[in-house]
Amino acid sequence: MTGQRFKQISLDGLLRNNPTFRLVLGTCPTLALSTAAFNGIGMGLAVTFILICSNVLISLLRKAIPNAVRIPAFVIIIATFVTIVRMVLDKFIPSLYESMGVYLPLIVVNCIILGRAESFASKNKVLDSALDGLFTGLGFTCALTLLGIIREVLGSGAIFGYQLWDFRIGFFSSSAGAFFVYGMSIALFNHIYSKIENKLRSKNFEARIMQKPDIGEPENELADQAEEAQNAALQTAPDQNAPTAAANAGHDNGGEA
Fold it and tell me: What is the DSSP letter of 162?
């Protein structure tokens, strides 16, 4: 894998095709589990693990899975890893398992995972698919954690369960607050992204203009060559006309004689 390919996959997952702020996928767990930063990290890491594992397995089996049953096959593969995650969380982190509730098994039909399986993993190599799952999952995790921090700080006056102050705004802990924070975050993210993208595009355009070769020099050289050829032709013209002039002179002398 080249560095350019790695950069493209990482930027797509984190920024250009961020599943939460750019593609607006997986909105149900985003709205429901972003009440606290810890819940956001937990759901994000679970989705990241499932994304990596399912992408790798689907990429390995991409030539063996018939096209007619690819979606059911993808769902079975994803459901297998979701079951593993549920068992692990229930055993070792029961508080996080209970806070996720029904949204943990619903990862099976999560648009992010199914979308990456269909559009990327089923068409690319194993390493590329693993990196795509990693960075897409990290993009989702960062977005969920950011929303959780905003809502937890404003709605509960705490962060990661640690109380900061007694001041709180109950609106941000409600469903309406989830929609408000999510919508404002999407607008702010896309505004900043568009500004940065336009700035980079203008810099690249200016760089291409500065590196553009001067097309006037070849034309000037051709003009100089043409002028030199014309001067050489004019210089040789009298020599070519000399016999004719001598003949005319002899004819005149003969006539006089």
Answer: E
Query: Quick check: 107 and 78 in contact, CB under 8 A?
Result: yes
E strands within 100-256? 158-159, 162-163
- Distance between CA 86 and CA 45 in Å, rounded? 13
Whole-number Å distance between alpha carbons of 75 and 82: 10
Helix/strand/coil (H/E/C) assignment for every residue in 57-108? HHHHCCCCCCHHHHHHHHHHHHHHHHHHHHHHHHHHCHHHHHHHHHHCHHHH
Q: How many CB atoms lie within 10 A of CB 245?
A: 10
Token digits for 34? 């972003």
Are the C-beta atoms of 57 and 77 separated by less than 8 Å?
Answer: yes
The pLDDT, as a whole number, for residue 201 is: 85
Do 10 and 135 meet the contact criterion of CB atoms below 8 Å apart?
A: yes
What's the rounded Cα separation, in Å, for the pair 188 and 196? 12
* 3 state SS of 122: coil
Tokens of 64: 């063996």
User: Which pTM was predicted?
Assistant: 0.78
Residues 34-45: pLDDT tens digits? Answer: 999 999 999 999
- Phi, psi torsion values for 22, nearest 5 degrees: -105, -50
Count the alpha carbons within 13 Å of 144 in the hemisphere toward its beta carbon. Answer: 29
| Nearest-10 Cα torsion for 96, 98, 103, 108 | 80
d(CA 151, CA 167) in angstroms, rounded, equals: 13
Q: How far apart, in whole angstroms, are the C-alpha atoms of residue 42 and residue 19?
A: 17
